[in-house]
Specification:
By secondary structure, the chain is an alpha+beta fold. The protein is built from five helices and four strands; from the N terminus they run αβαβαβαβα. It has a four-stranded mixed sheet with strand order 1-4-2-3, sandwiched between helices. Helix 3 links the parallel strand 2 and strand 3. 40% of the residues are buried.
Length: 99
């Protein structure tokens, strides 16, 4: 797996362009503020299903990458299952590194 995206995620966080947590991210998806949602590979099946369904319904890009520990570490918080990138340029840069 390519962990290169985590450094870019950390930069986006320092720039104030990242939100974490399923509840907050789902709200941002519905408000069309989220440009990319990253779901931890080890998130629960219910969390994945709920977030992916929201992303599909509101036409927001998403990716499954990293672990909950990775996402938490690089966003400066405890373990996180869901991270929202709220900036088009960071979202594109992270997607480029994931693909």
């Amino acid at each position: 797996m390519n962990n290169n995206f985590l450094g870019m995620l950390g930069m986006a966080k320092r720039a104030g362009k990242v939100s974490t947590g399923e509840f907050i991210c789902t709200k941002l998806i519905k408000k069309h503020e989220s440009k990319l949602v990253i779901i931890a590979e080890d998130a629960s099946a219910n969390t994945k299903k709920s977030v992916i369904n929201s992303c599909r319904y509101y036409n927001v890009e998403y990716a499954e990458a990293g672990t909950m520990a990775d996402l938490g570490k690089y966003t400066g918080s405890s373990e996180r299952a869901v991270v929202s990138v709220n900036d088009n340029n960071f979202a594109k840069a992270i997607l480029d590194r994931l693909n």
